[in-house]
Amino acid sequence: MILTIRPEHPEDVSAIREVIKMAFKTMPHSQHNEHLIVEALRKDDALTLSRVAEEQGKIIGYVAVSPVTLSNAEAGWYGIGPLAVSPHAQSKGVGSKLMQSVLNWLKENTKGCVLLGEPGYYSQFGFKAVEGLTFPGAPPEYFLSRSFTRYYPRARVTYHPGFYQNTAHGDANPA
Ligand SMILES: CC(C)(COP(=O)(O)OP(=O)(O)OC[C@H]1O[C@@H](n2cnc3c(N)ncnc32)[C@H](O)[C@@H]1OP(=O)(O)O)[C@@H](O)C(=O)NCCC(=O)NCCS
Prior knowledge:
Elements: E1 3-7, H1 13-24, H2 34-43, E2 49-55, E3 58-67, E4 69-70, E5 77-85, H3 94-109, E6 112-116, H4 119-122, E7 133-134, E8 143-147, E9 155-158
Parallel strand pairs: 5-6, 7-9
Antiparallel strand pairs: 1-2, 2-3, 3-5, 4-9, 6-8
The chain binds coenzyme A.
């Protein structure tokens, strides 16, 4: 099977929504609003990267990148997420290929990136919890960063407002 990672096209919108909904359906910590986050980012032109994994004409995976704000006003940092792979296509390397694809771009164009996720999965891509670079409201061990300059700012991170909508407590859900 040939797997293609490519930017989203306008006609992909409903397939992307379905992939995200299916991927997060059974995730215990999900607020099940991840597809709405992507739609809010798209509406606001805040999808820096929006890439799909396509196999035999079907979209089976998705990843978004959007700008984040640092409390020390440093520019050039981005958030990865949501990352989603259809349940039937998981554990075949699709998530890794989506991650590699956005990391290649981020390495060339940004200072660094953050995400909220399982350290066991994201450590393979160079992500780690960094003291001083924080995301209020999430357990610190799950808020992970990767710098492309080796320097890590000391700052609080805020995501795009789209991440703070439709959540149970108005908390961010950086997917
Ligand atoms: C996380 C996700 C994107 C990974 O996609 P994938 O295509 O299955 O990933 P890969 O095939 O590249 O890697 C799979 C391997 O990563 C590891 N892995 C996957 N999820 C993991 C997790 N939560 N914690 C630790 N390791 C994990 C496992 O070793 C797995 O291999 P295995 O299935 O043989 O045990 C996918 O499982 C998914 O969509 N999950 C639901 C949504 C989600 O949690 N998104 C991420 C938000 S943080």
